[in-house]
Write a structure and sequence with these properties.
There is one protein chain. The chain is of the alpha/beta class. The chain has one domain: Vaccinia Virus protein VP39 (Rossmann fold), CATH 3.40.50.150. 39% of the residues lie in helices and 23% in strands. The chain contains 6 helices and 9 strands; from the N terminus they run αβαβαββαββαβαββ. It has a 7-stranded mixed beta sheet, with helices on both faces. Strands 6-7 form a two-stranded parallel ribbon. Helix 2 links the parallel strand 1 and strand 2. The longest helix has 17 residues. The N and C termini lie far apart (41 Å).
Length: 197
């Protein structure tokens, strides 16, 4: 099995963890687009009272998550599931929280729509949806580096790009979520915390 590593994880995992400690319920978490699996291991180790369910749609990512999980041997970290966020049904029928880190800008807007729809199906009132990544505010980038990143994403795929917090909050509202907290994070990123109504 191949252990994949993302350099950004080492930089952002502890600031993200500080927010998750405050906002996540003490039960089951579904992580969407778990990528390398490094976040899943870090958060499951730091939050042993939570059951952490990683997922991804990419076979290489799923193999990497499995390899990191095997190395970590954490009882609360479940085997990864293949999950396509835009699918009308997901392989999980219940969660107390949904966590999605650095996905909606590296995917078409349909992925954000699928994420909100799926989270809306899963989460009971009071359930938490947590997003992390770069976001525009009122149609403007919050830093020149984010503008450059957005341009590079759109050059790779015109359907990708840094999303605006207002657009994301409105999409979430249509699926039964209120934006309850916006936390400035390192490297011009934000944590957005939504709660199911």
């Amino acid at each position: 099995m191949t252990l994949l590593h993302a350099p950004a994880v080492a930089r952002n995992r502890d600031p993200i963890l500080a927010v998750l400690r405050r906002v996540l319920p003490a039960r089951g978490v579904l992580e969407i687009a778990s990528g390398t699996g490094e976040h899943a291991v870090h958060f499951a180790a730091a939050l042993p009272n939570l059951t952490w369910q990683p997922t991804d749609c990419d076979p290489d990512a799923l193999r990497s998550i499995s390899a990191h999980r095997a190395a970590a041997q954490l009882p609360n970290l479940l085997a990864p599931l293949a999950l396509k966020v835009t699918a009308s049904t997901w392989p999980v029928t219940h969660a107390d929280a949904v966590v999605c880190i650095n996905m909606i800008h590296i995917a078409p807007w349909a992925a954000a729509e699928g994420l909100m729809a799926g989270a809306g199906r899963l989460l009971a009132p009071g359930g938490v949806l947590y997003l992390y990544g770069p976001f525009k505010e009122h149609g403007e980038h919050t830093a020149p580096s984010n503008a450059a990143f957005d341009a590079s994403l759109r050059a790779h795929d015109p359907d990708w790009g840094v999303r605006d917090t207002g657009d994301v909050a409105e999409l979430a509202r249509r699926h039964g979520f209120d934006l309850v907290e916006r936390v400035a994070m390192p490297a011009n990123n934000f944590s957005l915390v939504f709660r199911a109504t």
